[in-house]
Structure formats: structure tokens, C-alpha cells
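Protocol step 4 of 5: obtain the predicted structure for the target chain.
Materials: sequence only (see below). No template structures provided, no constraints applied. The aim of this step is simply to have a reference model before the mutagenesis design in step 5. Sequence pasted as it appears in the construct record:
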Amino acid sequence: MRAAAFLGDGRVEVRECPIPELGAGMVLIRVSACALCGTDRHGFEHGSAVVPGHEIAGAVVLCGPQADIDIGTEGVVYLVEFCGDCFACRNGSTNMCLNRRAMYGLTVPGGFAEYVTVRADCFLPVASSFSPSRATTLLDLFGTTRHALLRYGTDVPRCLAVVGCGPIGLGAVAVGQAMGIERIYASDVAPYRLELAAGLGAVTIDASLVNTVEQLHTMETDGCDVVIEAAGLSHTQRQAIAMAAPGGRVMIVAHSRGTLELQTSTDLIRREISLVGCEYFPIGEFGGTHALVTDGGLDPDPILTHSFPLEGLKEACDSFFSGTTGKVVIHP
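Step 4 output (C-alpha cells):
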């Protein structure tokens, strides 16, 4: 089979590799689509020890012992190979499994290949109406962002601010609209992605031209009930805190290697701001996200802007990481 390798320094190689063998409880997936994610940047720049790609859609072509899924079933791959037994899993938080066995495309081979093996209970069937590209949006794009907004609570916030208009930020805008949030603001420095956010219904703030926090407060004097930080930079995390209304919640969705400095009294205590970490999504939320798309409440198509064959992965990464695309999907 053909499989891609990230060699570091922006170098990508497509190699011939053996089709992976099946173990007990595993299924072999013929990959139809695998979307790029911001977390793929690290492997693209520094190299990856495994086949990358963790937003995978495809069909079952073979089942190993103790795996019982109909051949031909189409679906997506849940990123976390969870244990099912730890405190987090017992409470339904498979996304936070304390004994993760694998992370597909990050610690074990992923979907930038013709085939991938996954544990059967990490394969989530989708309706036949889903194209492979649309199916990938049920994972990071909509699954993660819907989880973040569900963590706000049962009430629908009056307004939402999204910091960073990469795919996660764009997904947050779309999910916010589907949930009925009346006023949504989105900031970024990339004109293309700001245009996409505006098309999804957000009031946009060009952070390259204005002070993001000041501009937000000219439109929402008190700040926003919920702010989703989707850029993963120390200064954008600071912006997100400053954009929150008293009693508001800041959802930190983007992974960051930076350090967030807090003035505890002014940032948190006096305004009772809550900082909430959001890691992927529990597997139990998948059905709700699936239903939102099938019912027409969520439309992935405006965010799915580019697609490439496996041999075009380097070009795809160059475009994606430059901020001149929406969601990019690779078709092995």
C-alpha cells in the first residue's frame, strides 16, 4: 500500500508499505479521506515516527478475531484508543482516558495511507448519505467544538467569541450558529479564513489591523459569555480571557507549547472567569453531532475548501499551514 511519511523540515515522502496485519478486536479500514489538522504541523516540521493523519474516514474491508462489523460499513475513526476501565472511561469521558493505548496518527499509524488498522470500538459507523469528506468533519471540526460548547452548560450563551479561525475556530462558529447563539464574533490575521468565518455568520475582527480585545468590547461592552481559544498562542489565550464577560467561560481548545501567565485576582477571581480545558470529545457525544449534520443544522461544505490526493500531501500542508484554506482533506 501507499503511505505518507513526515520527514521533518516540510518534507513529505509517499512510500510503499505492507498492508498492516490484523490483531484480535481490530478491523482493517480502506481509507477514503483523512483531513489535515493544526496538530499535524509539528510532524510536518519536525518529523513523525508513524504514518500521520488522525481525522480518518473509510470502510471496513477485513475484521480480525473478536471484531464483528459488517464488511463495507462506512464510518470514521475515533482518535483515542481508550481503555474502557479507568475513572475517566467509567464516567463516559473516553476522550480523557487515563490509560490511552494509542492515538491514531500520533502514536500509531494513521490515515495518510491507503489502509489503517483500528480497534473495532474506535470505528464509528456513519449514515450512507455522508461523503467521506463530510464524514471527517464529525471528528475534530464539529465533534471537538460541539464538546467545548456543551461544556458551557445547558443554557445557550447570548454571545460567543472565537479566537483563531483555523478549522476548529470555523467549526466553533458553525456549531454556535446551529445551537442558536445570536451573536458570534471571530478573530484571526488570515484574510481568507476571516472571509470564511463571515460567510458562516460571524462578525469578524482582523487582528492584524486592530486591537482584538478593544474591538470586541466596542461591540459587546461587557464581553462574551463564552470565548473559544482556537489559536494556541500565549497572547491569544490572554486575549480570550480579556474578551470574556464577568462570570464567563474561556474554553481552551487549541494545544499550546507556550506558557499562559495569569494575574489570578484580576483575571479570575474578581470577574469569576472560568478557564475550561477541552480535549477532543467523549465518544458518547458522537450521535448528537451526527444528527446535527444529517438534520441539516450543521453544513460542513462551506468549510471543506480543498482536497488533494496522497501524493499532494506536501502541497496540501503548505497551503493549509499558510492560512489560505479552510478544511483540507486528503484522499488516499
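Step 4 remarks: The first strand starts at residue 2 and ends at 8. The chain has a mean pLDDT of 96.
Proceed to step 5.
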